[in-house]
Amino acid sequence: MGCDGQAADPLTGAVGFARVLRAAGVPVGTDATGRYLRALGAVDLAERRQVYWAGRATLCWGPEDIPLYDLAFQSWFSGAPPPVAARGGRIRETRIAGLSTGPRGGAGREDDADGEDLRVAAGDAEVLRHRDIAELTPAERAHLDRMLAGLRATPPTRPALRRRPARTGPVDPRRTLRRTVTAGGEPVRPLRHRRARRPRRVVLLIDVSGSMRPYADALLRFAHAVSHGAAGGARTDVEVFSLGTRLTRLTRAMGSRDPETALAAAGRAVPDWAGGTRLGETLGVFLGRHGRRGMARGATVVVFSDGWERGDASLLGEQVALLRRLAHAVIWVNPHAGAAGFQPVQSGMAAALPHVDRLLAGHTLATLQRLLMEVRDA
Fold first, then answer.
1. d(C-alpha 68, C-alpha 50), whole Å
2. pLDDT-based confidence at residue 157 (cuts at 50, 70, 90)
3. Nearest to residue 56, comparing CAs of 42, 46, 67?
4. Residue 131 near residue 167, CB atoms below 8 Å
5. C-alpha dihedral over 16, 20, 21, 23, to 10 degrees?
6. Which terminus of the chain has fewer CB atoms gathered within 10 Å of its CB, N or C?
7. At a CB cut-off of 8 Å and minimum separation 6, what does 263 contact?
8. What whole-number distance in Å separates Cα of residue 246 and Cα of residue 196?
C-alpha cells in the first residue's frame, strides 16, 4: 500500500496514508490511526474496496470529511501527487470534485450541481493553525470547528493513595510474604509496587463577555473537546463554567458527544452572552458555591479572559489569590497575549497576574494545542 498502490510494508503504507489525509485537512490523530491499522488487519489488503471502507469507517469524523478522504485516497492509490494548496498567508476555499470508488478504484467525476461543498485547501491546514481566530472567515471557522473536534487531550494525573504492582519501586511486603507462603517458605524474588495515578480535575472558566465574543465560540468548542477527547478513552473530570455578569455552570450542557448539540445547549444556558464583565464577583460566586467545597481543591484551573474588568479590580486580585491557594495550578489564557508588544496593563489582568502560574495566549489553534500540553504537565 503506498503511492504506487503497493508498499513492501503495509504498516508503513497505512501510516503514510494517514499522514496524507491529515495534511488534506481531516483531523486524524494517533488513536484514529491505530483503529485504521486494526481495521486493515481484518480485511483483504488486495481488495481495494475493503481498504477504502476500512479507512473511511475509522479515519473520517463526519460527512464533511468524506470528499477530502476520497480525494486523498484516489491520489494515494493512483500514484498522483497528493492535494497541495498554494502557499500563502490566507486560507482559500477549494472546490473538491466528487469521487466514486469501485472495487478496483473508481475514476474521479465532477459534480455538475452548482452547490458543491467548499473545502479548505489541504496544504493550508498548517497555516490555519496559526491564524488568529477572530480574523477567520466563515469557511475557515467551519474548518477550525472540525479541527477542534479532533483534538485529543491527555488528562493530568495526581498520585493516588493506593499502590499497584510494578517492576520497580519499593518492596511490597504483603505480596512478597504471600508469595513466599505459597512457595512453601522458599525465598522468592521480592515483589514491588508504586503509587497509582488518578485523573486530576480540570476546571475551565470561560469569559463570554462582549470583548471575548470573537473567541467565545471556539473556546467552548475547545472545552467540549477537552471534556470528551481523552486519548485512549481515559476518564476525564472536567468542569466548565461561563463568566460574565454572572456565573453559569455548563458541565451538563457539554455532556452531549455532538459538539453542535453541546454548543446549542450552552447558548441556551448562558443568560449574559456578550454582555458585561464582573470577573471578581463571578469568581467569588464560583469559589463560594463550588471552589471551597472541593471543586477547585487540587484541580488545574484555566481562566479564559482578556482581563477587562468593569468591577473592582482589587476584588478580582483577592479572588484569584484565594483560587491559587485552593488549586494545584491556575493558568490564565488571554487571547491578546499572543500579539506583538502585549503588556498586561488591563486593570483586571494586572491584578490577577501575580497570582497565576502561567499566562498563555489562546488566539490560535496552535496556542490551544500548547495549552493542552500545559494542562497535562501542570
1. 18
2. confident
3. 67
4. no
5. 140
6. C
7. 217, 220, 221, 224
8. 39
Number of CB atoms found within 10 A of residue 182's CB: 10
- Tell me: the pLDDT tens digits for 187-231? 788 888 888 888 899 999 999 998 899 999 999 999 999 998 754
> Counting beta carbons within 10 angstroms of the beta carbon of residue 250, is it exposed (0 to 12), middle (13 to 18) or buried (19 or more)?
buried
**Among the listed ranges 60-74, 194-208, 230-244, which one has the minimum average pLDDT value?**
230-244
Instruction: Pull the grid cell for residue 317.
Output: 486580585
- List domains and CATH numbers for the chain: 10-129 (no CATH), 157-198 (no CATH), 200-377 (3.40.50.410)
User: Is the Cα dihedral 274, 277, 283, 288 positive or negative?
Assistant: negative
Looking at every residue in the chain, the average pLDDT score rounds to 80
Q: Give the residue-averaged pLDDT of 295-308.
A: 94
Q: How many CA atoms lie within 13 A of 281 on its CB side?
A: 12
Report DSSP letters for 269-331, one per residue: H-TTTT----HHHHHHHHIIIIIIIIISTT-EEEEE-----SS-HHHHHHHHHHHHHHSSEEE
- CA 67/CA 108 separation, integer angstroms: 11
Q: Say if strands 238-243 and 157-171 run parallel, antiparallel, or are unpaired.
A: unpaired
259, amino acid identity: P
Which ranges in 7-111 belong to alpha helices (H)?
10-23, 30-40, 48-59, 66-78
Rounded distance between C-alpha atoms, residue 276 and residue 271, angstroms: 11
